[in-house]
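Record type: monomer structure entry
Structure origin: computed from sequence
Chain ID: A
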Amino acid sequence: MNGEQKLEAAESELADAERELDKALHDIQKAEKDIKEALKEKEQPHAFKVIVTYNGVQKPFEVRRDEPVARLLDQAKQAFGPIPNAHLLGLFNQHGAELKDDQTIAEAGVAPHDILLMRPSQVRGG
């Protein structure tokens, strides 16, 4: 093998190594992204349990981060049985802030194991 052939072989090996390096870097970036998503899912699971309290009685509910607060409110009204003036009720967090029906569970700031209160709303009317 003469010098020119050695140079061509070395350049070909270099090109192969650079392609492998690019693929490895891409694989590392994908793995890092997958790890971040897995950690986020672990910290903020897509589905989780919350407690709704009404008149001193607590009941567990499974919610999804992307479902509307109104869906949980409807489930809670049904679970607690016939409630007079149920249309006047809303869900409140432990700080006393009312959750907006049109927000998702995530947008409302509800987290796993939160305790929510179902009580008359300030803004609902018949």
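Annotation 1: Strands lie at 47-54, 57-64, 89-92, 115-120.
Annotation 2: The longest helix spans residues 3-43.
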